[in-house]
Amino acid sequence: MQSREQRFKQLFLSEHGRMYRAAYMLLGNEDEAKDAVQDVFTQLWTGAVTLREESQRAFLLTCVRNRCLNIIARRKNIDKAFHELCEYESSENDEELIAAINSYIDEKLTTQTSRIIRMHYDEEQSYKEISDSLGISLSAVNKHIVQGLRKIRSTFNKKEA
Q: What is the pLDDT of residue 23?
């Protein structure tokens, strides 16, 4: 009888390639596709997701598809939030607000989050370019941007009211 680790390894080896190809087709990005597949296998390993033997291939592909759709949705939400923030800044033309946001980014966010936000929005670098430049995963880039924008929005929406 195989151990849990042996069954997991066998499943990983037999399904990883197919799952990666599906994720890459949906995301168009190698690193994000790898991260999506890794997330699904992590959920399996930790027991967050239970796999039935008779439908494992279809189930794994569905999990990867859903993870990819979440990544795509998050991309859109991040871009929308930043553009809304930029439109607010532009429409108000409030130099004090812009200075306050820039100061907040530099002083209140972590060094890494600040750097990543600057690279993406000021230098217009893609997530992939930032990931390659800093030697971190696309998921990490995404996490820093999401958390940074959430903090900025939370802080400055309170001040507007």
A: 92
pLDDT tens string 118-140? 888 888 888 888 999 999 988 89
* 12-32 pLDDT tens trace: 899 999 999 999 998 888 888
Using only C-alpha atoms, the chain has a radius of gyration, in whole angstroms, of 20
Residue 95 has pLDDT above 50, yes or no: yes
Q: How far apart are CA 47 and CA 7, in angstroms?
A: 14
> In the block, which residue shows the tokens 């820093």?
144
Distance CA 138, CA 152 (A): 21
Query: Which residues are within 8 A (CB) of 37 and not within 5 positions of it... i.e. 6 or more apart?
Result: 16, 19, 20, 23, 64
DSSP string, 73-110: HHHHHHHHHHHHHHHHHHHHT-HHHHHHHHHHHHHTS-
Alpha carbon distances (Å) from 66 to 19, 37, 82, 139: 12, 11, 24, 16
Asked if the model's pLDDT at residue 43 lies above 80, the reply is: yes
Q: What angle do CA 139, 123, 97 make, to 5 degrees?
A: 95
CB atoms inside a 10 Å sphere around CB 56 = 14
